[in-house]
Amino acid sequence: MTTTLTAPPQAANPLRAGIAVNRIGDPCSIVFFGASGDLMKRMLMPAMWNLRLGDILPANYAIVGFSRSPFSDQSFRDEMRKSVDEFSRSGLAKEPLWSDFANHVSYVSGPFDDTDAYKKLRDVLEHNDQQFGTAGNRLFYLSTPPSLFATIVGKLEDAGLGPHQNKTGWTRIIIEKPFGTDLDSARALQTEVSKVFDEKQIYRIDHYLGKEPVQDIMALRFANVIFEPIWNRRYVDSVQITAAETVGVEGRGGYYDNAGALRDMIQNHVMNLLALVAMEPPVNSGADAIRDEKFKVLSAVRPIDRARVMQETARGQYEAGSIGGKPVPGYREEPDVRPDSNTETYAAVKLQIDNWRWADVPFYLRSGKRLGHKMSEIAIRFRAIPHRLFGEAGEGLDNNVLVMKIQPDEGISLRFNAKVPGPKMHIRSVSMDFNYGTGFGVVSAPAYERLIGDAMRGDATLFTRWDAVETAWNIVMPVLDRWTATYDENFPNYAAGGQGPASSDRLLAADGREWRKI
Ligand SMILES: NC(=O)C1=CN([C@@H]2O[C@H](COP(=O)(O)OP(=O)(O)OC[C@H]3O[C@@H](n4cnc5c(N)ncnc54)[C@H](OP(=O)(O)O)[C@@H]3O)[C@@H](O)[C@H]2O)C=CC1
Ligand SMILES: O=C1O[C@H](COP(=O)(O)O)[C@@H](O)[C@H](O)[C@H]1O
């Protein structure tokens, strides 16, 4: 069978020239463990459908859902069609393509610790090789409660589905976050997974890495000559990394109340942003070269002194408030959250990187739920000008700030000072903005599409390697330990819809700085 590539729409905008879709995955069966779950419904199946629409799925593919719910193949397909209709960026699933796609979808029902269920799975995979030409290639996607990751990996091996038992094709595994709940549990999980899979076969997903503006951090830094010379302690005053959300726990209170913002966002997504923005240029653009540099810079993060955790961090928990004019309940009123919960829904941490490039440049990281706006960004604040030429006209000039806007309004913005038109020399801060949507005339694909496609092609660049996961846990552990051990009597301490707790403002004020407004 052959696959036709969809030609990119004709470029009216010169920036679009050269955008081509040529990222077709290898023939394979993809097995989604946790196929009846929330992530599958909202993200993973819509992503598969859009990969099909974009001709990024190979002609020889098969999709297998696996979970306990007793679906037949047909009732699972019907369920998946509903989720595509509701959540796919391409709108309602259209015929005849949907029926063709649905033919490639099947379902295995059973508990993840049941050996017989894996035998059924093995039969389905062998059948797929015959019927769809999937060539023995298998991609297992673990979208299940993390407590089941190790069990599933062990059972795959028991059923003869381990990568080293596969004599005809490749076997890879995508593992959802969180990879562990602390350093020890992450190491224990790694021990179990690595008994069956080699590092090159393991794809630890961090969906932030699949976001276009996050991938663009490397392009901005290493495909331009003007930024890298000033990307260091001589010119940079400080760096702020923010991942602010307006949503609360969205029906995931049971998970979140045992996680909190530090585990849920800082240890993985925000730490990956830090690594990309602070790392040295990799020796090439291969997965290992990039991940070597990410690991190196994370290793250079100064461990937070356990005695100073409360000075170097801030935590918060939201109380009832309003967002976009609508009242929302406090965290402790959310379903499955303990009424006296000590879990932080906001975390801020100040880090230092001990290397030649970044010595003495503070990196301020923050993430929180139920804040005033959704906003993820990296802001590089440059130093003040060394000499004031313009006397009073230059009083109170803002420092230059380069902002990489990850979402929403994906783009890059440079704040600089300019003369206000008129007879007098009056200077004011202005900004030069690039927006991905209008600049390239395309809407970015959701991260899961990019990441699943990459795993099908064996490109691990946008997945987190074990050494980085371990190092990121190492960085947050002193904070986790101290926060867990100390009940915060001030909780809840910020109103939903606001800027976060006052303690977070004090963290920066102590250094004579302020957070950017959310
Ligand atoms: N949902 C989200 O927004 C996000 C989720 N994630 C991660 O994705 C993963 C999945 O999350 P989510 O979809 O929300 O979880 P859900 O709780 O919605 O789904 C869990 C899935 O696992 C299945 N399952 C659970 N226990 C068993 C078992 N013993 N045997 C067989 N199947 C079982 C369930 O099947 P059944 O109900 O049929 O028993 C269900 O399909 C988690 O690792 C989570 O941390 C990461 C980022 C965001
Ligand atoms: O991994 C997670 O990410 C989401 C935020 O993702 P975004 O793409 O909307 O920024 C967060 O809501 C969730 O709690 C967390 O588990």
UniProtKB/TrEMBL annotation:
This is Glucose-6-phosphate 1-dehydrogenase. It comes from Vulcanimicrobium alpinum. One of its GO terms (biological process) is glucose metabolic process. InterPro entries: G6P_DH, G6P_DH_AS, G6P_DH_C, G6P_DH_NAD-bd, NAD(P)-bd_dom_sf. Belongs to the glucose-6-phosphate dehydrogenase family. It comes from the Bacteria. NADP(+) binds at R68, K177. NCBIfam families: PRK12853.1-3 (NF009492), zwf (TIGR00871). It holds the Pfam family G6PD_N. PROSITE patterns: G6P_DEHYDROGENASE. Coiled coil: none annotated. Residues 331-340 have a biased composition (Basic and acidic residues). Residues 31-215 form the Glucose-6-phosphate dehydrogenase NAD-binding domain. GO terms for molecular function: glucose-6-phosphate dehydrogenase activity; NADP binding. The gene is zwf. Residues 316-340 are annotated as: Disordered. Substrate binds at H207, K211, E245, D264, K369, K374. The lineage of its organism: Bacteria, Bacillati, Vulcanimicrobiota, Vulcanimicrobiia, Vulcanimicrobiales. The active site is at H269. GO terms for cellular component: cytosol. Residues 218-516 form the Glucose-6-phosphate dehydrogenase C-terminal domain. It catalyses: D-glucose 6-phosphate + NADP(+) = 6-phospho-D-glucono-1,5-lactone + NADPH + H(+).
